[in-house]
């Protein structure tokens, strides 16, 4: 079994950091990720710098990333201006977020969920004309920090509606880390039925220590792509306590011990996680860099 692990540390991992990470360090993080074998990287977000100051240097980052055959760079896009910037910067794929609840959608994007769907359809049409790969992410698919539980039927109706724009990929995001494997199985199975022609991707946070169990449940239910962040860093600036992406290195250890192939070297990623901790000035949440591999290399 092969699984794609999509690295989100340069974008989702760093966007919530209060101290600005310099461009050179962002590029170095991406370089190290590519060297470890990661082939899909969400590198930047094309959002107004006043909203997310950490992403203000998106064009500068993309100007210096290694352009290696087989490596695909993604960027988060919210509107036409963001798509213009993404195309000019040479992105390979875009990710457009539709939030499952109106309250978080307004906090995150300044619009209702309904308007978010309309924006996605318009951006998807433009992106298709430009030949760029399109992912749509349904955020807060497993729960909202303001409205509480989100019914599976609500999420699956959103999947059906966003699938009408023909995305290559649909992602279900546990934005605040409240999901559990039973809910993951329900949503992934339902999403596959609602959008059979799109790849299915999942984005989990480990805020309440369920992220890795959810990742396994997603694969068992038919997801083929998992997001993860080197070091386990990250969070959403617009959702309270939305910390803790699942760590790329810890996920890789889990998958490889299960015999699932990724093409990525977990020890190299763990070393990058330790390096990232030195950049941020604190230990990262990931555990593989502390515990080491098993069996130990001889």
From TrEMBL:
Ranges for domain Pyruvate carboxyltransferase: 3-270
Classification via CDD domains: DRE_TIM_HMGL
One Pfam family hit: HMGL-like
A Gene Ontology molecular function term of the record: hydroxymethylglutaryl-CoA lyase activity
Keywords recorded for this protein, A-Z: Lyase, Metal-binding
Gene Ontology terms describing biological process: ketone body biosynthetic process; L-leucine catabolic process
Coiled coil: none
SUPFAM superfamilies from the UniProt entry: Aldolase
Family in the record: Belongs to the HMG-CoA lyase family.
Protein name, as recorded: Hydroxymethylglutaryl-CoA lyase
Organism in which the protein naturally occurs: Nocardia alba
């Amino acid at each position: 079994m092969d699984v794609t692990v999509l690295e989100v540390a340069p974008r989702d991992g760093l966007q919530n950091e209060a101290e600005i990470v310099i461009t050179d360090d962002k590029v170095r993080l991406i370089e190290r990720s590519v060297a470890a074998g990661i082939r899909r990287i969400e590198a930047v977000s094309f959002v107004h710098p006043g909203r997310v100051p950490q992403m203000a240097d998106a064009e500068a980052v993309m100007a210096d990333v290694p352009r290696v055959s087989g490596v695909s760079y993604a960027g988060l896009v919210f509107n036409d201006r963001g798509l213009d910037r993404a195309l000019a910067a040479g992105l390979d794929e875009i990710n457009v977020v539709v939030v499952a609840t109106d309250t978080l959608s307004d906090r995150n994007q300044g619009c209702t969920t309904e308007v978010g769907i309309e924006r996605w359809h318009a951006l998807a049409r433009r992106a298709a004309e430009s030949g760029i790969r399109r992912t749509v992410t349904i955020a807060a698919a497993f729960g909202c920090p303001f409205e509480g539980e989100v019914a599976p039927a609500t999420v699956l109706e959103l999947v059906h509606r966003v699938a009408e724009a023909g995305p290559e990929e649909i992602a279900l995001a546990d934005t605040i880390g409240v999901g559990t494997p039973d809910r993951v199985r329900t949503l992934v199975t339902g999403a596959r039925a609602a959008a059979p022609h799109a790849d299915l991707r999942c984005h989990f946070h480990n805020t309440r220590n369920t992220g890795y169990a959810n990742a396994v449940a997603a694969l068992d239910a038919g997801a083929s792509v998992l997001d993860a962040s080197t070091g386990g860093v990250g969070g959403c600036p617009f959702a309270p306590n939305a910390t803790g992406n699942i760590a790329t290195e810890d996920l890789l250890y889990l998958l490889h011990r299960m015999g699932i192939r990724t093409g990525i070297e977990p020890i190299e990623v763990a070393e990058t996680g330790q390096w990232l901790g030195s950049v941020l000035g604190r230990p990262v949440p990931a555990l593989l860099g502390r515990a080491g591999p098993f069996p130990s290399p001889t």
